[in-house]
Amino acid sequence: METVFKAFVNQIVVAKLVPVLAAYFVLKATLDGAAGENPLPSIIAALFLMSLSATMQLMQGWNSGGQYATTDMLTSLWNYIVGQIMPAAAGLACVGAVINFVRHRPWTRMVFAAISFLSVSGLLTLFQAMAA
């Protein structure tokens, strides 16, 4: 039963249904833009759908299949977020702070957000050391 479900998800949903839905959202974004509406929600939905296959493969690689597979997945997900996503978010916050500074808008919140994004892994290590 498990192999049938995996085959259905991989061969039908991911391989055939997801690209069609992503194409629909690209078409919807084009029509929204032509009508003068905001196309960003449709663009984000299309990008999410197109990254679904790679995300599935990434998480399947993290699955150890052992007794502690759930904790292994959560640990790998946390390490990915802290090592890949947070530094990128900190860089974007710095860029936003510079843009706001040039436009004479509040920029200090973005600087503090960038600092906090970069200190997440250090705080986790500190909390683990305090708990031990």
TrEMBL record:
Superkingdom of source: Bacteria
Record keywords, A-Z: Membrane, Transmembrane, Transmembrane helix
Membrane-spanning ranges: 6-27, 78-99, 111-131
Entry keyword Transmembrane helix: yes
Identification of the protein by name: Uncharacterized protein
Protein's organism: Edaphobacter modestus
Source species taxonomy: Bacteria, Pseudomonadati, Acidobacteriota, Terriglobia, Terriglobales
